[in-house]
Amino acid sequence: MELLVLIHLLRAALESGDFSELADKLADTHPADLAAALAEFSPAHQWQLLTQCPLARQAEIFVYLPLEQQVQLAHSISRARFTPLIRQMSSDERADLFNKFSDEQKQALLPALAQAERDDILSLSSYSEGTAGAIMSSDYAMLSPHLTVSEAIEVLRHEAPDKETIYLSYVVDEKRALIGALSLRELILAPASALVDDVMKHDPIQVTADSSQEEVAALIARYDLLAIPVVNQQGQLVGIVTHDDAMDVAAAEATEDFHKTATIGKLEGSVKDAKISLLYRKRVVWLVVLVFGNIFSGAGLALFEQVISQHIALLFFLPLLIASSGNAGAQSGTLMVRALATGDVKLRDWGKMLGKEVLIASLLGLTMAAAVSGLGFLRGGADISVVVAATMLLVVMIGSLIGLSLPFLLSRFGMDPATASGPLITSIADVAGVVIYFSIASWYLELVL
Amino acid sequence: MELLVLIHLLRAALESGDFSELADKLADTHPADLAAALAEFSPAHQWQLLTQCPLARQAEIFVYLPLEQQVQLAHSISRARFTPLIRQMSSDERADLFNKFSDEQKQALLPALAQAERDDILSLSSYSEGTAGAIMSSDYAMLSPHLTVSEAIEVLRHEAPDKETIYLSYVVDEKRALIGALSLRELILAPASALVDDVMKHDPIQVTADSSQEEVAALIARYDLLAIPVVNQQGQLVGIVTHDDAMDVAAAEATEDFHKTATIGKLEGSVKDAKISLLYRKRVVWLVVLVFGNIFSGAGLALFEQVISQHIALLFFLPLLIASSGNAGAQSGTLMVRALATGDVKLRDWGKMLGKEVLIASLLGLTMAAAVSGLGFLRGGADISVVVAATMLLVVMIGSLIGLSLPFLLSRFGMDPATASGPLITSIADVAGVVIYFSIASWYLELVL
Question: Which pLDDT does position B65 carry in this prediction?
């Protein structure tokens, strides 16, 4: 159903106070769509609409609301009314919400929960942001190796309603150490009397709770997994991360890298809904830093004031020379930043990539030099043409090599290669461009004139 | 197993000619890892190693090889030996490979296949690149609405080995029109004697074969789907796209957008393995185009040669003013390009975003103006300080507004917003910066001096 139609339906029900037809109409609507429509209402109305559904469905819809709205809604209703909902939520979503609560709210909520739920929330919410632990779910299906296949299927059937997925089960020993994994497909195809131990895959692909989320997403993508098991330092199973969470992580990582390449600080949540003060803060830092970087280009120009005054025609070519250097640098920088992020290129490939880049940059530089030499001749004569073409060849090569190398250097020193943003590379290339251009000009023009 | 250990093992087996121990050692190794190791060998050796495995496993490993290597390997062995392997491949991978074949190879292969396989390959390979059809698999599980739940489970058990997934089944009527979807979890939980028709979800989320892959990936992410059914214009089920393919599509789209923001043309496959001539071609076009864009900045400078000669101190501030304009523009441009790509911001949000950006850009401009006014005073006195600060405020605002608007404008006219790359915005901001700076300077300095 269209979002606007859905909002209209919900609004009409709120106004008439008649919710009787709503349930039928919305039965086949996906929780994500209902949440998108609900997001347009006030917390009081959200709650009024939500409570028209059975509790399990309430939780399904609720978790699709933006996290900030979940917090607001939790704030706006009494603990007694909210507790059943939070108990119904899946373990990972619940822990995320809990982490956004104030200390008071946390203290108020915990006593209302059963011991097992309390332990689960406290344990899941204890992992640092950015780790596998922070996105994992504790609602995984666990099997003993001594079960037969038909017993295992019975266990899964019984547990299915409460588990994140039953398509993958994890086999643990008596100490809860992860020893195997098994898909429901494999179970269904295996003889009913076979033992789980004989059918399972040993030593499954796994991560530890402190692994980075990027690593988890990369493994799920590489091996086409539905879910990946998470173990603690002792090798005990503590959670799973599912493919849909991995997809969200990969998208968030890409967004963060995009922003970084344009010198924007880490932004969580929607750009559309972000506060002006937040966006200002995330953007101003690097803008100011780069101003001071660009002082060097200015100082370079000041150094050559005399040459420039004598050959003011040189100025005409200044923007296109330094821009070309920066553009070529941004290209090779971006290629490397992304290739390092996807794992296409590794740190050890620097030598190989540098060798290739020297050739590519030479070709690019020669092409660009040819393109501007004609322009130089037309505008300033043969001498200017030579200076401009030689400068172009050099600055495109230097810009490209800076762009290529910076991400590797940052990575080598444990920094995020995405910090090697276009603007940073451009600023460095600018300084180099100014100095090279006017050095060549003053040397060559003195020689020939 | 570590990649290098794996390569070593394979090499040792090739040298000794003794493959007897290999099978046991590699039984638990993921096909993706085996393919990564195989990729380091020549086609002849790849084939020799592959054929040590049973046919089904051969196909599993083969599809993880880079597509170019699959083509090479297919070239290097006889049709009779290759045909069994291609018959074993999953339908989507097989169609991708077929699309890379020469016409001769295609003509040679087709007669060796059964009618159904031939039709399947021809049909799947007929969809244009970038559509759902081009990545979908025809190995989906299909059910009739009249089956009982226990009959349906029996059908799935029987078909499991040949299907991409059995965790989602699609229900079609006698004309093969898609009428419902059903997860294996739902089947397992339903009463054995219930009818599929009564348990299934009606009107499932679906796409048509000509939908864009981006749209497919976005739907799978939004609704946390394991797979999405693909229908033709008549509503008949023709394929499914699974979550892992959607994740690959999302990553490839992000890479393409990254490259675009640095004016690099669409690159398929690995940057590491890309030929120098290919990288050159993908980079040179925009570099040359932007040179001609930057001529306008040069012309702007030439226009003000007189003011510059009289106040050569102005030059010192030129790089940082135009760089700041470009940097602010790259920030707002990148924020919008990514937000439009993820769906966070829609075309209709332009007004709202523009209003916010005016405020943010004013704040940024004022901060930057304050930062450079002191520098202007120290370097050139009060008059220069006024000119520089006023210019900074204006150029940061104009740069930001250009950066924000360009992606919307491109999107409005059906072009990819990612074309509004940093370098393009920078070039436009440069021209504006030069003209604004020297216009203010010549007006103000004439006024006060």
Answer: 93
- Of B320, B157, B4, B40, the C-alpha closest to A296 is B320
* CA-to-CA dists, residue A394 to A176, A352, A401, A438, angstroms: 62, 21, 11, 12
> pLDDT digits over B220-237, tens only?
999 999 999 999 999 999
Chain B: give the shortest CA distance to residue A433, in Å: 11
Identify whether the C-beta of residue B389 lies closer than 8 Å to the C-beta of residue A309.
no
Q: What is the DSSP string of A238-266?
A: EEEEEHHHHHHHHHHHHHHHHHHHTTPPP
pLDDT value at A1 more than 70:
no
Q: What CATH architecture does domain A141-252 belong to?
A: Roll (3.10)
Q: Determine the pLDDT at residue B244.
A: 94
More confident residue, A12 or A447: A12
Q: Quickly name the fold that domain B3-126 has.
A: MgtE N-terminal fold (1.25.60)
Please state, in angstroms and rounded to a whole number, the distance separating the CA atoms of residues B254 and B250: 6
Instruction: Catalogue the long-range contacts made by A32-35 (C-beta closer than 8 Å, 24 or more residues apart).
Output: A32/A64, A32/B222, A32/B223, A32/B224, A33/A1, A33/A3, A33/A6, A34/A6, A34/A61, A34/A64, A35/A61, A35/A62, A35/A63, A35/A64, A35/A65
pLDDT level of residue A223 (50, 70, 90 thresholds): very high
CATH class, range A276-448: mainly alpha
- pLDDT, tens digit, 9 for 90 and up, residues B431-442: 999 999 999 999
Kindly list the residues from chain B whose CB atom is less than 8 angstroms away from the CB atom of residue A333: 262
Distance CA(B422)–CA(A126), nearest Å, equals: 40
d(CA B96, CA B124): 9
Residues belonging to chain B: 449
Residue A352 and residue B272: Cβ atoms within 8 Å?
Answer: yes
Q: Cα separation of B100 and A8, whole Å?
A: 50
Query: Which of B384, B317, B28, B258 lies closest to A339 in space, CA to CA?
Result: B258
Q: Cα(B343)–Cα(B411) distance, rounded to whole angstroms?
A: 12
| Nearest C-alpha in A relative to B351 | A272
Cβ contacts of B57 within 8 Å, gap of 6 or more? B31
**Shortest CA gap A103–chain B (Å):** 31
Domain ranges of chain B: 3-126, 141-257, 276-448
* Contacting residues for A265 by C-beta, under 8 A, at least 6 apart: A259, A281, A282, A283, A285, A286
Name the percent of chain B in helix, strand, coil, to the closest 5.
70, 10, 25
| Chain B residue whose CA is closest to A245 | B224
Do A291 and B167 make contact, defined as CB atoms within 8 angstroms? Answer: no
The tokens describing A195, both together, are 């033992």
pLDDT tens-digit readout, A169-198:
999 999 999 999 999 999 999 999 999 999
Amino acid at B213: Q
User: Which of A44, A46, A38, A205 is closest to A132 using CA atoms?
Assistant: A205
How many whole angstroms separate alpha carbon A296 and alpha carbon A431? 6
- The CATH H-level (homologous superfamily) assignment of domain B141-257 is CBS-domain (3.10.580.10)
Query: What's the confidence (pLDDT) of residue B261?
Result: 87
Strand pairing partners for B237? B231
Question: How many whole angstroms separate alpha carbon B248 and alpha carbon A250?
Answer: 10
Taking the C-alpha atoms of residue A40 and residue A19, their distance in angstroms, rounded to an integer, is: 18
What ipTM was assigned to the predicted interfaces of this complex?
0.87
Question: Tokens for A309?
Answer: 């005054």
Residue whose token pair is 């976005």: B218
**pLDDT, mean over chain A:** 91
Q: Using the beta-carbon criterion (under 8 Å), do B368 and A291 form an inter-chain contact?
A: yes
Question: In this complex, do B271 and A335 lie within 8 Å of one another by their Cβ atoms?
Answer: yes
Q: How far is the CA of A132 from the CAs of A81, A240, B41, B309, B438, in angstroms?
A: 31, 9, 35, 61, 54
Q: Which amino acid is at A388?
A: V
- Which residues does A436 contact at the CB level (< 8 Å), separation at least 6? A391, A394, A395, A398
* Residue A28 pLDDT greater than 90, yes or no: no
